[in-house]
Write a structure and sequence with these properties.
- With about 130 residues, the chain is of the alpha+beta class.
- It is rod-shaped, with a radius of gyration of 34 Å.
- The two termini are about 60 Å apart.
- Helix 1 runs antiparallel to helix 2 (about 40-65).
- Helix content is about 45%, strand content about 10%.
- It has two domains: about 5-65; about 90-125.
Length: about 130
């Protein structure tokens, strides 16, 4: 049995106990409102009903809170280039200096170039081939 299975079984048990306590809380509140003529007994039943309701609500909340999970995924994309692909040299559009792959970074999904010669930073765009 994995630890996730044990956690979900524990959450179900907490949830069921919480529902039982909520039920008894409502029963005690109902009994407090129809306690005949004894105000002391009505007060005791009302306090007990409140304790059961608060405990049941706390257990139900704890059971539901433990079910939240966060999934983190890492995606790696591989590009398959056609057979006749040439890698061309990239030059700075400001000073014409030759750029290396280390000078290109991805910033917010866009390739940004920082020229090591003149210090210019700009977004790299690909010109149409036609």
């Amino acid at each position: 049995m994995s630890s996730k299975t044990l956690l979900s079984v524990g959450a179900v048990i907490l949830f069921l106990i919480g529902l039982i306590l909520l039920f008894f809380g409502f029963v005690y509140f109902t009994a407090a409102s129809s306690a005949g003529g004894s105000p002391i007994m009505a007060g005791i039943l009302a306090v007990a009903g409140f304790v059961f309701l608060a405990g049941g609500a706390g257990l139900v909340y704890a059971a539901m809170r433990g079910q939240k999970t966060e999934v983190i995924q890492q995606v790696t994309m591989k590009v398959d280039l056609p057979g006749a692909t040439k890698i061309s040299q990239v030059n700075c559009r400001n000073c014409g200096g030759t750029l290396k792959p280390d000078n290109i970074r991805m910033v917010a999904g866009a390739p940004m170039v920082e020229c090591p010669f003149c210090g210019t930073t700009y977004q790299l765009t690909e010109e149409p081939k036609w």
